[in-house]
Each structure stands twice: as C-alpha cells, then as structure tokens.
From TrEMBL, chains A, B:
Phylogenetic classification of the source organism: Bacteria, Bacillati, Actinomycetota, Rubrobacteria, Rubrobacterales
Family note: Belongs to the Fur family.
Annotated source species: Rubrobacter taiwanensis
Reported cofactor(s): Zn(2+)
Pfam families from the UniProt entry: FUR
GO MF annotations, alphabetized: DNA-binding transcription factor activity; transcription cis-regulatory region binding; zinc ion binding
Official protein name in the record: Transcriptional repressor
InterPro entries for this protein: FUR, Fur_C, WH-like_DNA-bd_sf, WH_DNA-bd_sf
Amino acid sequence: MSRVEQDIRDKFRRSGYTLTSQRRAVLDALRDSDGHPSAEEIYLAVKKKNPRVALGTVYQALSVLEEIGVIDTKHWSDSPTRYDLNTEPHCDIRCVRCGRVDEIPDVDLGDLHSRLQPNTPYEITEAALVVEGICPACRT
Amino acid sequence: MSRVEQDIRDKFRRSGYTLTSQRRAVLDALRDSDGHPSAEEIYLAVKKKNPRVALGTVYQALSVLEEIGVIDTKHWSDSPTRYDLNTEPHCDIRCVRCGRVDEIPDVDLGDLHSRLQPNTPYEITEAALVVEGICPACRT
DNA sequence: TGCCAAAACAGGAATCGTTATTAGTTGAAC
DNA sequence: GTTCAACTAATAACGATTCCTGTTTTGGCA
C-alpha cells in the first residue's frame, strides 16, 4: 500500500468517517483525472463504473474528503468549483477560454499567510491565489 | 466636479455607454456604502431612492461599470460577489462568520503578476489574492 | 421642439451549481 | 441474525445570476 493510500486511510480512521465504495470511487476519479475536475466531471467518471451513484453523493463525498483534508478545492468566478488531490499549498491557473487548469510551479506561497497577518486585525484562516490566463493551446 | 467624477464621465464617454440615472444610483450606493456591498445590498440602497429599479438592472449596471473600469469585483466562495469603487489593485479579507470585508493595507500586489508569469506558459490576465479570516468583532 | 432608432429598463421567468430532504439501504457491533 | 447509526439515491429546493419580452427613455437630427 502506498504512502498516500495509508495517509488517506489514517485520515478516515481519525475522522470517524468510513471509506465507502462511493468515496473510494471519487478518490479514484480524482487520481485518474489529468487535472482539476469539477464535481460534474467526477460524477461522470464515477458513473462509468457504478451507474447508480447520484450527483448529490459525489458532492457529499467531496465535502467529507475536503473536511478531513484529503482533497483541496479551488474556486474561480463564473466556473464550477474544481477539486484536487494535492493538499500541499500550490498555485493553479485557469484558462479563461477553455477552462483548463494547470499548476504554476516554483511559487512559494508558504509565507503568504504570515506576510499578510501583521497587516490585518482579522485572524487569517485562508489565503489563496486565484490566477487566470490564456493557455498555450488557446492562444493559437 | 471632483477628479473621480470627471474620470467616471470620461470612461462613460469613451466607452459609448450612457451614464443613466440607474447607473448613477449604483455608483452613489457604492460610494455611500461602508465597504464592499453585494449586488443585493446595492439594489436595496438604490431602491430607497427609486423603488422602481429592478435587481436585474443593478446587475447589468454593475457589469457595465466593471467593463469600463469604474469598479472592481471580488469573489469569495459560498458568498455573493462584492463590488468596490477602488480600482487600484489591493487585497481584501472577508470574515467567514459575518461576511464583513475589509482591506488589508500595505500589501504590495504589484509584482504578483510579473512574479508568476515566468513560471507558466499561460498568458496571465488576472491574479488576485483571496483571503478569509475572522474579524475582531466575531472573535469575541 | 418633435420624431425616430437605439439603448436601457422593469418585471419576471429561467438557469446553473450546489445543498437539503426523505425514504430506503448498507454494514459494522453486539 | 438483529439492531442501529451512517450512508446513499433520488429528487426537490435554493440562491445568485442571467435571460427574455414588452415598455420606456435617451440622444441624434430634422
């Protein structure tokens, strides 16, 4: 069993949630996808193996997976939420033309939180970069 | 007439859009609000002076105002879009408990775009920070 | 000033991603 | 095997936003 696999099982055990076949299927769909699928895309992938799953189940599974820290979610405006197995802080960019999402490597976001905190009386809980652009394929 | 006022008129003239009383009212509501109101809040403020305006009109006015560069929009997940007269790049933080939005001062975002661009083949069109936290009043 | 075409508007229906509800199913603990 | 809580499928409901249609307003021009 891989380290990642073990980590997932640990997080389920600690949380009290059970790793059901539907949640497993959502994780598999995320692993097998090439990028940052939407709930709809995950739903379609899961449906191929088990046509009985409902879209609502996918949403609920995703919310559990996010809660226990197995997946990350990313929001862009005018676009459905994207999901991602990678829980390391990283920066994603979305193509405004085709919707494709890719990671921007070598961006140090670790200090974002600590760099902002001294400037606000709020207690920062979340700090993310939302980046949009035009991907090479769409630039033509 | 203030500099800001003149700037708004110029932007309308150049764009070809007309500065109607409804669009004027939306701008006034933004100016008189204490922060970063949602479309709904702007709608309610506008309605006080002219009860006949429709919510759809507010949305359309906001979209025109954004297009010609008079206002900024900010998106947080699980929350309606917020609008802002300030078009200088700046960083806002939203309270996850009460929804209040405040600016985080002294954050240099000017180089965000140029810092990210070398690391991606995308042509970056937009780079923003989305920050959430708990405001002093909600920390109790 | 009065007319006309284009733009903008009001009102309400429609859309879309997401969440809530509810009844039924599963599966682990005894 | 029985029991009970957790989970699921199906579908209704929701909120923010956009779209549509007929009406009103606006700016250009005689």
